[in-house]
Amino acid sequence: MTARRVVIAGGGVIGCSVAWYAARRGLEVTLVDRPQRGKATTASAGGLWARGEAVGLGCGVILYKKALAERGAAAVPPPQPLPRAFLDFALASNALFPELARELLAEAAIDIEFARTSLLFLLYDAGDVAYAETVCRPGSYGGDAVERLSPEDVARAEPAISSAIRGALRVRGDDQVNPYKLAQGLEAAARARGARFLSGVDVTGVHVENGRVRAVGTDAGEIPCDVLVNAAGAWAPEVARLAGVDHLPVRPVRGQIVCTEHLPPLLSACVSTTECYLLQKRHGEILIGSTTEEVGFDPGVTPQAMRTLAAGAVRAVPSLAHAGVKRVWSGFRPGTPDELPILGPVEGLAGYLNACGHFRTGIVTSPLTGLVIAELAAGGTPSVDVGPFLLARFRR
Amino acid sequence: MTPRVPLVVVGGGPAGMAAAAEAAGAGLPALLLDESPLPGGQIYRLPPEGFAPPVVDVATARGHRLRADTLRGDRLRAELAASGAEVRGATSVLGVWPDRTILWATGDASGTLHAERIVLATGARERAVPFPGWTLPGVMTAGAVQSFVGGMGVRPGSAALVAGTGPLLLVVALQLHEAGVRVKAVLEAGRPPLSPRLWLGLWSARDHLRAALAHGRTLRRAGIPIHLGHTIFAARGRGEVEAAEWGPVDPRDWRPRRDRRNFAEVDLVVAAFGLVPNTELAELAGCAHEHDPACGTRVPVRDSAMRTTVPGLFAAGDGAGIGGALSAEDEGRIAGIRAAQHAGALATAEADRRCAGPLARRAALAPLRAFLGEWSRPRPGLCELADDDTQVCRCEEVTLAEVRAALAAGARDLGEIKLRTRLGMGACQGRNCAAAAAEIVGRVRRCAPADAGAIHPRPPARTVSLGALAGMEHQP
Predict the structure, then answer these.
(1) What's the predicted TM-score (pTM) here?
(2) pLDDT score at B464
(3) Between A and B, how many residue pairs show a Cβ–Cβ distance under 8 A?
(4) Most A CBs within 10 Å, among B458, B466, B474, to test the A interface
């Protein structure tokens, strides 16, 4: 049997993951990617917060707090957890990381810097404590993975963290990785299994015949294929439109990150607060994120974000006041109306698969996305039901 | 509410001082921000407080250029003070936005202000050329030697090789010689250009040429050989420089001819391969840039009024293209006058009249600039000085072998090399390594270094503490 020919549009972590899982299944993979400022994978901090993100930690609580401050409690609904289907998907994907890290080291000699850190949510005030209680409630998403820490517990575990807290939640299993090493590892492993990567190449058209994708036009020539995977992140609507899919509701949502100079080990856990989150990476830098901004494709950074993120970091870890800032950057999360990814086929167009709209959680959901999309591309049954993530959900 | 300022001048070297003085003198309130406590820039820097008078007594030194520099710096400082421009020293500019918002920091404070007009006079830094041993203690740039000798009265070594290209080589060699350092040789990689057009143009700059020839004669009298078409190959030593290898380069592309290398026992190697404009702020502000072959990097596009492509934003001096201190001062004057005209403080005819002198002097210097630009234009063979173990990026200790491996693994440009190797991710954010790395990428991928991609600057243009950012005043 001839291998099915798959073209992947987009070389971020999602595209690379699809490439790896597809190449591993023996599919004939070509990935096309163009240079672009603000690619989310390289801008990301690399938190693997399956549970945390599902209940609104990370950027969710920052955005909520900001909305509260601007519009008042009456106008802002309390944060809602994402649907159960997302939590299950994210947990299953997160569970793939230890094995993936081993595979990529063996296949591509690339260390994705997967680290078991856990995620600490710092409780500054009564609102944070009340919020934490909803997470710990029996039957909630937190489950056994969440543990309440007293201020003394936090002081023992993380001496650098401020003592002016009411305690913390520890979410076990919410860890971190180096996002661009992950993408590189997936790419290198996929290449080693024969995948072709065309970087600096733009998708210019999609050749559809009798309701089926036949080829993808690029500025480097036409590539015949059986399946086109749209993994173009915040730019996915452009690719979709070329394939005749007109209403892919993905939009750029800018996030800014502040990066410190190399610091001695200061944080063992990832830290989430209502003002910022902090992760210390392998090389000693601490990444401080992030904003949630609807500014289109403006790749800039702003003094306001630098101030609020810096202030949030210094409040959480006072000794950081003396740490130098090396760089501030931004990236475009591929946002969707319900904050869930858009995966799988669309009605009426054979040979086209969405793998986009991963919003804040593209890094943690990349392995399972890659696996499931590769299964669908191969014509098989996906190991996880993509029903809740189909584009069709927006038409209901 | 962000304060509004009619004119902000970024940088207090010759261009910045002249711009602020001209604008304020024309009645446009000007605020000059500079990193150093006192204005002067790299060339007219005052010694830090508490340092002994220089070893070289500038009043009696045979190197008249030193004395002339000091006088020019003092005169510009006096003009600036008399103009009424406000000077804020010890203040870094971390970012400039296209709407002319400026983010500044001083000590543990920071803040924003909105400038109706900006003159960027950010100066230049020295080009880093990686060669084996270039990170050893005892290898210095020309600027470092000048701060030690001229600024602080400290002798940086006892026996030296001075290598690189351009007129600064002779100046530094002379300074070292007069400070009592044994200069074993001056190695000028370039040779005089062959073009008669370039030579004919020099007539208008004959005074400068005469000064350079005088430097050369002084060095020869002191028994210091000047080798044209030669350069440093490697610095050797355990923990610090103990010896150096040097030799001839291919005249076309300056590739080292290692088969004809020499050795010298030295404890100081001066590497002075010219200057690179500090364009980070102009890039952050969104100014269009173009490749400048004379310095081998990008420079902001400007017109004869020093206007960039961003309205209200001017760029002057070496930060916008290397022309030296005299040219920088005149460009600063033009920018300051045109900014005043832009604000309505000067009528067009009066602004034209005031610009006439600086424009004429700048035009007179242009042939010299073209001559030196062709002489010292960095040639691609220099990137062959590095061997596999040579660090290309010293902040992150990335070696040439690692860069080559990243290219072999599929990296196509500087951005991808950065993600794979961490080159440019350190404290300098690529300011020092990007030019050399672009040469290497160009070499391997057979493209022009200008097409090798870029490490995009991002704020902060200078390292700032989180505490200073956390206390930011006046955000828009």
Answers:
(1) 0.94
(2) 97
(3) 95
(4) B466
